[in-house]
Every structure is written in structure tokens, then in C-alpha cells.
Amino acid sequence: MMLNGAEDEEKWLAEGIAGIQHNAFYMHRALDSNNLREALKYSAQMLSELRTSKLSPHKYYELYMRAFDELRMLEMFFKDESKHGVSVVDLYELVQHAGNILPRLYLLCTVGSVYIKSKEAPVKELLKDLVEMCRGVQHPIRGLFLRSYLAQISRDKLTDIGSDHEGDVDTVMDAVEFVLQNFSEMNKLWVRMQNQEPGRAREKRKKERSELQDLVGKNLHVLGQIERVDLDMYKETVLPRVLEQVVNCKDDLGQYYLMDCIIQVFPDEYHLQTLEALLGACPQLQPTVDIKTVLSRLMDRLSKYAASSTDVLHEFLQVEAFTKLSNTIEKVIEVQVDMPAVGAITLYVSLLMFTLRVHPDRLDYADQVLGACVKKLSNMPKLEDSLATKQVVALLRAPLEKYNDIVTALTLSNYPRVMDHLDNGTNKVMAMVIIESIMKNNTCISTADKVEVLFELIKGLIKDLDGAVDELDEEDFKDEQNSVAKLIHMLYNDEPEEMGKIICIVWKHTMAGGPKRLPFTVPSLVFSALRLVRRLQGQEGDIVGEVVPATPKKIFQLLSQIIEALSAVPSPELALRLYLHCAEAANDCDLEHVAYEFFTQTFVLYEEEIANSKAQLTAIHLIIGALQRMTVFGVENRDTLTHKATGYSARLLKKPDQCRAVYTCSHLFWVDDEDGIRDGERVLLCLKRALRIANAAQQMANVARGSSGPITLFVEILNKYLYFFEKGNQQITAAAIQDLIELINTEMQGDSANPGSDPDVFLASTLRYIQFQKQKGGIMGGKFESIEL
Asked: Among its keywords, does the record have DNA repair (predicted)?
């Protein structure tokens, strides 16, 4: 059926176009021969094709444009009196004798435009006559196109009236009155279309009306182009009359389109000075009108107007634009009780954007908008509409993007309250946006109060909200927690007392996040605290502040608690590393007993929590490295710790691991500093013990695989011998090095299965180094001279 209907419409359109072309041919022939009577006859017959009711607005427009093009030719003929010999006054009377009303009125409008231009009659009377006569056509589509034609042909004449030096105020008012009356009649015809057919046809009619809306809007465009329509005339005449039509039509499509037309057509200055009247119409619109889009476009235009020049900003303050917009939005939301959440929130987003652009210095305005949004959100159930949620995120992002400074957003008391209305997932997304803003702009949060507010904002990342169990992808979770860890480094204050408060606040919130988050956030917190410790180096007394740790001792106490919580996760390897960092910081502060306690905790972790052999090897090397750098320990404490380290080294599971750990322990007894320990005998004992373990490893390899294992361990020990030999350890002699080289050569002869292997290359490189030292001469060359290769 739809296909047949479309085919029929195409057929009717083709017949109408053919009729127009046929009569236009004879009309042109009459125009060429200056035959007025024949021209009027065929033009009337041509225009009779526009009487059809079978076409949709889209198809009727095609037919109308064919006739319109022909009427332009006819108008040019009417202008030239020398061709037809009839005055414009007589011509105006003559065309009124056309048989049918629709062709008659088209011809009357055509002649009328010429009559106005000639100024042979009062403009007011002519305009009034034309607009009144057009009431004779009440069919909506035919009437709309007829009045559209009237507006189109009179358009240039009306704008000339506005700019003509001899056009007085009364003449301009006549032109304005004509356009307003034509607009009023067109609007009535347009609205009437919606009520012609009930049921399902109403949707079809709505679509057809959307196709015709520009015909009605043309009148407002004409008003906007009349130059002498100044602000006073607009305020006192134009806007009240147009708004009266908008409100009284009671049609949602009409009200939406016409409000949008008003906003787009007239100057921004006019909108600002008539803001109260324009906004006063908004609560009177139908509940189904998309008022959020109308107001959003108005605020967007006003924002751009404010940005165009700083000179206009005072006008916004004079008319109290923000207050009026805010009050209107409140009224609209109150009146439209069925407005969805997304509509209300969108209005607040637009108002906030307006505020940030026009009044960026008025944070109280921005906070007021956020507060109004909180009030609205509090009166509705939990947000489940994804579009509404997106708008809330847009509301929260606006201050961040405007100020590029989270510190400014933190001063908005209602900002966290808005975030509370987001679901858990969106809350996390917004928290990530906040952190990204801080990192991007390199923003430093420097007060404890602001840190407290900030961590309330990002609580979706640092703890599980409402006891919910997140089914979050592991990679996403890591990204989130790494972002929080980066954020902690952006919290800083030069004042030790304030920085101490910040650390305590972060620790409080971090502990609320549960064990799975601690491995990500604790290291950042520890290093932030250690940075404070190093700034406080040498201070023993308390700094003003009773609760906050502001001396190294107190901070180390807090650090011990923090790392202890981490070791209970369990994450012993990470806890061990952090204990060692704290021990080194205590060493720098010359706090021996504190450093000793951290090493004690390190060894406890090693004994009780680290069971994996590979992790044990890594841990023991870290312990040895840290212990070797310690300078604060007395003889007793140092001996105790080095004894522990060497003991654990010798008890590693794998012989090669034992060997490497033991020869590394040799560095604990020889520190190459001015005041460092230099116990050559104990160094030699470690290296000899490492040789025995290496030999045992070789024997075990021989038993297990039937051949001696690689000689890498021996070469590594040889390099340690060479290191201490160069450093001046009297216990390491050239003879001992010679013996070790011979031992390695013997072992290599016994294992000739892998020539060119890594141990061979390693040994060759070591021997080249010895040769280089021998050839260098001097004291060092003399020391190496007795070693034979």
C-alpha cells in the first residue's frame, strides 16, 4: 500500500508539473507579445495546479517552486508599465477578478509587491490588505505556502523600509505589524495540521509539519533583518507578540521550533536585555517540549557573546543573567514533573558551562549549580540511565577542564556530593579523570584538608564502595592502583607539620582499601614519608603538633606500622625491600637502633615468609647490598647482622646460589671508604668458603651428569680475588691468585666438551684484564707482575 501511495503521489506531482509547464509556455508567449490579458489568463490557470490536496508537503514544495520561478518572470513584467500599459493601481484591481481564490491571491501578492515598491499607496494599507486577503485560504498546506510566498516577495521591500532614510518609525512599525500578523496566521495554520487526523496519522502529520516549519520561521528571519527594529521595539512589540503566539499555540513541536528560532535569529544583545521575558515563557511551555535543548542553546549563545568582548561582561552582571537563568531552570524542573533525570541534569550542565565561561571568578555560582543538581539527584532513585550518568560526569568534568586545577574544584563543597550519586563504575571513571587532570597539569595538593577532600572524591579507587565486590579486569585494577600510587607523589608541602598530616591522612584512607590494594599504594606512601625524613635529618625534638609525627623517629614508627601491614598481605618481598630503604634512611639520620630494628624486621621476614629459593637469593643480595652501605652501626650490631647475612647465604638451597651469596658477603668486611671497615682476613675467609662451595658444586655435577660442571663459579671468585687484590687487601696475594688460575685451568682441561662456551669467554676476558694490568706498569703493574698466565 505504501508503495502504491508513493507511486500515485509521483504521478500526481508529474501531472501538476506538466500543467504548470503547459500554461507557463502560453504565459511566456503572452509576456513576449505584451498581452496582459492572456498573461493573466494563463498564469491563473498555471496557479490553479497549486489547488491540489493530494500531495505531501515535500512533493507540494516541488510543485510550488516550479510555480514560484514562473511568478518571478510575471513580477518583472508587472514592474514594466511600458509593456502592458496599465498602472499598478489598476493592475492591483484587475488581478482580483481571477476566478479561483488561490490563483487570485498569488497574483494579488505578486502585484502587491510591485505596488509597495512604487510607493503610490500607503504601505500600511497595502500590507494590511494583503495579509487580510490571504485569510481566504484556510487549507493548512496551501495557506502556508501562499503566506510563505507573501513573506518571500515582500521580504526585500520590508528590509528596505527599515534602512530607508525616509522611512519613519510608523512605517517601520507597519512593516513589523505585517510580518507579525502573517507569522500569527501561519502559525495557526501550521498547528492546525496536527489536529486534522486522529490516531496513527498524527505521527505522519508531525513528520509533515517538521518539513514545513521553516516556512513559519521565515517570518522571524525577516523581522531579524529589518535594520530599524531596535532593542526598544524588539522589547516592547516584537518579542511579546511572538512569545504570545508561542505560549498560546499549546503545541510541543511548534513551541520548541519557535523558541529555537527566536534564539537563533535575533541578536545576542537583545536576548541579554530581554532575558526575563524570554525565560518567563519557558515554564509555560508544554511538558513535552525539549526545553533543555532550548535553554542550552540560549546559554551557549550568551556564553559566546560574553567571550566576544570583555566590555559586555558588566551587562551580564547588570541584568543578573545567572540568577535569572538559575531561577528559570528551577521553575521548569518544578513544573515539568515528568522530566527525565537526563533532562534536568543537562540543564545544570549547560548552566554550569555558562557560569564557568561568563563568571569564572565566581566559584560560589558554580557551587550553587552543583548544589541544585545534588538536590535534584537526592529526590530521585539511584541513577541507572546511562545518558543521565554521562551528563553527571560532564558536570563534574567542567570545572576540571575550565580551571585545569583540581585544587579549585576541591573548594567546591558540593562537588563530592555530586560524585556520591554516581554508580561504582562511573565513580571510578570520574576518579581516574581527576587523577589524570592532576598528573597532566602537574598539580601539587599541599594541604591536609584538600587531601582529605581529594581522597573522598577518589574513594571509588581506594576502597570497595558499599561492600560491593568488583568483577574488575586484573589489568584495569592494576592501572587504577598505579594511578593512585602516582597521585601520592603529588601530595607535598614544604612545612614538615603539614606534610606529616598529609601522610597520616593518606595512610588512613589507604588502610581502608583492604590488602589487595596495599602492594600498589604503600611503596609510594613509604617513599613520600622517607622524603620528609631526609628533610628533617638531625632533628630530635618535637615540632609543634601533638598528633602528627614531625620528627624522624616518629615517622619511622609510622613507617614500621605501614610496612608491617604490607607484610601481612602477604607481600613479603616488597615489604623486605621497603624495610631496607627505611634502614638506609635511618642510617642517614644517624639513628642506629632504628636502623637495627628495620634490619631485624627484614631478617624475620626472610626467615618466616620467603620460601622460594629464587626469591631468597634476590633477598639475600638486597640485604647484603644495604648492609654494606650502612655506616651507623657499632661493632657489635654490625657483627650480629653480618653474621646473620653470611649464615643465611651459606644455607641457600642450591650450591651455586650459596657460592655467589657467600662471596658477595666478602664486601661486608671491606668498604672502600675513608672510614670504612677493612677486615682483609674475613674477606679471605668468605672467598675461601665460596671456593669450597664451588668445588662441592663441581663434584655434585660430576656425580649427577658424569662430568664436571661449568667453571663459571671459579671465574667469578677469581674476579673477586682480583678486586680485593687491587684494593690493597694484604690477605689476597698474587700467589693465591696464581693458584686459583691454575685450578681453573685444570678444571677446564677436565671439561673439554664445550669449547667456546660462556665460561671460556669469561675466563679469557679476565686473563686479558690481568695482562693489561701487567703491561700498564707502575705500582699496579708491579703487583700483577708475579702472576703468570
From this structure: no
